[in-house]
Amino acid sequence: MTAATPSVARPRMRMIPWRAPVAVVAALVISYLVIANAAGAQAQEQFINALTIGALYALIALGYTMVYGIIELINFAHGEIFMCGSFVAWWLITTMGFTGTIHDLPILVIVLVVVFLVSMLVMGVVGVIIERFAYRRLRNAPRLAPLITAIGVSFILQNLVFVGISNSIVKVPQLIPFDLLQIGPLAIREINLFVIVFAVALMIALQLFITRTRLGTAMRSTAMDREAAQLMGVNINSTIAITFFIGSALAGAAGVVQTQYLGNTVFNIGFQSGLKAFTAAVLGGIGNTTGAAVGGFVIGFLEVTSSVYGIGRWSEAIVFGALVVVLIFRPNGILGQQLADRA
Amino acid sequence: MNLRNLGALAGTVILVAGACSSGAASPTATAVTPVVTPTPAASAPAASAPAAGIAVKIGIELPMTGGEAPNGVPTANGVALALSKIQVPGFTITIEQEDDALNGTHDPPTGAANMQKLANDPSVLFVVGPYNSSVAQAEIPVSNAAGLMQCSPANTNPGLTQTWGGVDPKTLRPTNPDKIAYVRVATTDDLQGAAGADIAYNVAGKKSAYVADDTETYGKGIADVFATNFTKLGGTVVKRDGIPDKTTDFTSYVTALKGLNADYVYYGGVTTSGLGIFRSQMASQQLATIPFGGGDGIVDGSAATASSFLNVAGADGDANTYGTVAGPHDIPNAAQFTSDYKAMFSADPGAYSAAAYACTQVFLQALKAVGTGVTDMAALREAVRAYVATPANSYDSALGTFSFDANGDTSQKIVSYYAFDATTKAWKFLSQRDFTANPVQ
After folding, report:
1. ipTM score of complex
2. Which of B44, B268, B289, B315 is the Cys-Cys partner for B213 at CB 3.0 to 4.6 Å?
3. What sections of A181-235 are H helices per DSSP?
4. Average pLDDT, chain B
């Protein structure tokens, strides 16, 4: 079982190993030039802004795409899990008594590790619970039933926070300094560096997990053909639960990033950012984890570019317009289906 | 199974969900949104209160929950205070309270539905509200069709009553274009925006401004007026931006500020559409030294008030901030009003509490004048509407003496200026300008 599956799941990337890095570098250079064309002296900073917000969208998008890849469910509650993650971060940080930036590096690291671990763990468990009680019984129902259930779960989570915690904008202390770091020719704020590096590290870890571990193989085989995977001895229920756990934990991490980078959260942020992230997942090719990351960065880039060019008024039209254009020419998204490629 | 079309399906779902987000009400959320319950007396039938006069209702249509609570609650309190102080012989007046905040933000379709609900209740003779101009746009056609007079304490977009941007306000009242059923005691943004420019140029002494708006009716209108007047005064608008009201990440807009050499930021909008977050992100990027100005959308309470602008902008980010209110600060008997308000609600009045009080006074005066002997509710509603719509009637109110012109605008053309005060962490009254005596040049 383990030997045969990977080569089927990753059809083309293996054959042309230089293609991906070249494409990434080319995309980064082109994005930078587009932004630099209008941003003047702030080109570098704006480019980093785009990467940072893109990383946030990408982290959320991964959860959408993983769940879609494995059970073909558009998990609308995923944005709400992201929102709840940000509230867990808010609760932890204020309970621990922090009110602002921590300049002592060891303490900062410890606090961040605690906040991220707890938020990811809590949201991962919440994701598993939602799957167990809301989606599992509907797994073989018509596709519309779990979709509506997902929307229902989303409203439940949103209203729980609205009624139980806060019905307006909540300020969260930003622990990571906003000081500028000079790395060679690159000037970058510590917070931006942290968000980008952290998000990319998580994405690489996820990629390695999916491609190199037995559980990852089980996930991919379940995505490709559930019955066959089951016949091969894969435990479908636990595999799907693990997928929900990982996707939700990533959303929990994104929730922490939201509070640390933007300094606030609100009960309905899951809808806004969730919609953007879902768009990212579709843009990149839903079901495809690399595609979700790419889509996240593309949307971050489009948002910042529209702001830089002074057409921020149209940023949403531009983002969704880009989605339409991409889907016209590539109905399966930029990178197409990968996790669940059975066409 | 073929998955080729699923990408397109998913895209359709996104677009549908996107359309929903732009305002359509979600039934589930509405059901759970807590609506402030009317006073117990409001639901009591007339029969149970014998000899108390004819039972009639005054509607309140304001955003009461979520981030809007600092706006709606003190304003609604103004109505309750007026009713407790002033009686109309022969009538028992109770409050019918509606909330146009959906999931914590004012929502025009919810406002229109609320207005329809109030109009359907024959005993509702008058409505105080709404708070936001975008909500008023949705409500005016409804109140006009029902002939139910509404008085807004806080709407400032000129287009609601006057020809603005080439649009005739009669398009808002297609049923009875020549019968107004909407008046307001707040003055308009053509003056409030000018006042903002006056502050930026003359009070703060700044010459180059970055001007943004939240792309809503109110925000875009007031920012446009600011830009025009700031230029007229001799200042330069270095960039004019529109930032969608659902934006969460303002970082790139703030970063762009650095390259603009702007020494003032004017942002048309309200706290819930992101102005507080924008200001806090300015502070994150060490730009809090640039003064920030806004209209009455940000004068919504002290830094201690949860989810007010000053609270969201943060202890560091809110210094250097200016705001305006489209009405007089120096009202007759201000001390008496404040102490009455405090006695009843144990809090300081909000920016538009006295305005809501004045709206209620307009209704009570009209009812006193036309109500005697009328028992038919439809006739009474129309009589109140006609009385208030008559420009000859003037009102001696909490805001001073004023009348409404044929459009429904107040004769009081006064804007109050405020600045953030670091010691009290609240808005400090600077001065007020009467544009009747001292018009925009």
Report:
1. 0.89
2. B268
3. 190-212, 214-224, 226-231
4. 87
